[in-house]
Amino acid sequence: MSTENEVAWLFELEVKPEDRQGLEALMPEMVEGTKKTEPGSRAYQIFSRENSISVYERHDDSDAALEHVKNFGRKIRLPGLDTSSVSGPALSSDTARQGGGEP
Asked: Which of 14, 47, 93, 99 could form a disulfide with 85 if both were Cys (CB 3.0 to 4.6 A apart)?
């Protein structure tokens, strides 16, 4: 499978301590739902830390990435996330060719 049009991102979200347990309960559902319903999603992993979660996503192309974002917004409401503190790079094959990501 070609990686020419691939889109990936890694970002971190802060989690309020009082909402951590509920969020952790949703993580398996989020990952499994993505695997089952989004064939253009190549990788979708969530890593948990004390006050934050990191999310790594990789999609076949920008259409698959946009479909994931649309589906995610429709299906999942995440309490306790401070989305104003989202940080991390978005990577694509163009970024890699320009020296900003892995070749």
From this structure: 14
